[in-house]
Every structure is written in structure tokens, then in C-alpha cells.
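Project standup — Tuesday

K.O.: blocked on the structure for the chain from last sprint. Re-posting the sequence here as requested.
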Amino acid sequence: MAPPELTETDDSVRDTADSTEAPVIETQKLCKIYEGALGGEDVKALTDLDLIVKSGEIFGYLGPNGSGKTTTIKLLLGLIFPSSGSMKILGSSRIGAPSIRKNIGYLPEGAYYPDFLRGEEVLRFYGQLYGLERHDLKRRMDNVLELVGMQHARSRLVRGYSKGMRQRIGLAQALLSDPQILILDEPTTGLDPIARKEIRDILVRLRDEGKTLFISSHELLEVEMISNRVGILYDGVLQTTGTIDELLLDRDLSVEVRGAGAEALEKFAAAGIQAEDAVDNKIVLRLPETVSIYAAMSICEAEHVEVIRIAPRRETLEELFVRVVGMAEREAREKASK
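H.V.: unblocked you, prediction finished:
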């Protein structure tokens, strides 16, 4: 079956300087249905996806396993065709055009590189696939190895690389063609805390240099720390999208106090107020939504406890994820039971 024709309004790749507001990735009503084999049921992997990724931002693309994230990435890379809808990259719907492919760098999850190659040989191989000339390839290799901090290990065999080093050489190959867009699938999964921070710092630096990063990940804390905006996908449907500040709610209050004795702590516990993060004679009290701040203040006054600071506690991206996905699951169950 021939792929559907995509609506096209502008086939030229826009320079980043044209408009920082113009989306670099845009989909409208994008759908993907995998036809069932031998009369089996069709699988609707993506439903009416309306997505915008802006220039120079880090966009975190989140969702449970099987939600449609990988299908979205394959569509953006031109590896599969949509069943319906339209998509544009850098203003063009010619997803497979060389000018578009050159401007997308891709790091797949668990990327494998032959152990018998040296780091620079891996990059030289990919550079030749990109069609880079010898002089340009050498210059780009030097630049990206310096950027990801792998100059010192360029001549070492890949078999001697740690997981963090393998991931950095993967980032280097994704950057070889100097793309405007980076699509990264689980860039920090399986790395130790130091390697995660190193990769995170590189990603932020790339964003600050004007690259647009589309990151699919289950590492929600990492995504929360660096993303400008996020989208949460469930069962092929984009449930919510927005900036971190727009999406995360103020959940409860934290109250830092000094001089809370055993009797005061018992009263706090009886009122449903949690005491945590005790350092010296300072304690942070966690007030859930069901407990009034006035109840805590009354106990503090009665027990002569000094109040140092009161601040709202914002929910984490993990809590948002659980809330949004949980709501979508309940709605799906209710719909199925009708």
C-alpha cells in the first residue's frame, strides 16, 4: 500500500535565524496504524498527534512502554510512513529529503558499536555515511570529540569504553553533520550518577548553542532538570504538553522549624504533619493538602517552636506523570466498561 501523501506548504529548510518562534518539529492529526497480520486486529499506535517542538529548546517526550514514543521517532526519522495526518521538520514535509536528514542527529537507545573499532573509526564510518568530505570530516570529528570530552580516548578501542564513554561517542556521531535537531532515545539510561551529570551538562550546552533536542526517556528526574517543555503520551494519545512550570502543581507546604521537642513532634504527627529532613535542631515539616497551615502554627505557638520558613512544595515530574497516566488509564477502563 502506497504511503499517504502529506500536506506540503513549504519545502525549504528554514534557517534558524529566520524565526526563533517557528517550530522545528510540527505534527497535525498524525496517526499510525499497524495492520494486523493474517486477519489479526490492527494496532493503533498513534492517534491524532498534534505536537510542536520549538527552536532551541529541550523537549521531553514521556510515556509508559508501548505508548507510541518509538513510533513517533520512527515517523520523524522517515523510517515508517504515517497512516494519516501531516508532519513538518524545519518547515518542510519532505521528511526523507537529504537537506532534512542532514539536519537531524539521532542517538538510538542502547546504540551498539563494534568493539574492534576505535572511537575515531566509528565516527569516520558515520561521517562517510553522511557524505562528509575528508577535510570536513576530520574537522567535524575534532569538534565533536572535543564537545563530548572524548579527545583523549579517540584512539582507544570501543571495547575499553565505559557505558558513559559509549554514550558520549554516540552523541558525537549524532552531531557529526552539525544538525539543527537531535533526537535522543534514553540518553542517560543505565549510566552512573557521574556519567549522567556529564551527559546532562553536554545536552544543556548543546541547547544553549542553539540546538533543538527531542528526548524520549523514562528517567523523569533527568528530564525535569533540563527540559523546557514536556509532553506525556499514553496509548498513542498525547495527554498533556507544556512547560515544566505550567504543568507541575503546588501540592503541599513545607515548614522549616527550629527547636521542636518530642512533645511537639507527637502533636505534629497526631495532626497528620510529617517531620523530615532533621538537621541539628532544625526540622522540615511536610503539610499535606488536607492539613491547614493554621493547625501547624497553633502547635508551634503552643510548644514554643520557632518558624524559620514556609514554602509551597511543587509536585515532581514523576508525580505529574503518575497523575496524568493514572487519569488516562481510569478513563480508558470506564470507556471499555460502557
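K.O.: great, moving the ticket to review. The CA atoms of residues 110 and 116 lie 18 Å apart. Confidence is low (pLDDT under 50) at residues 1-20.
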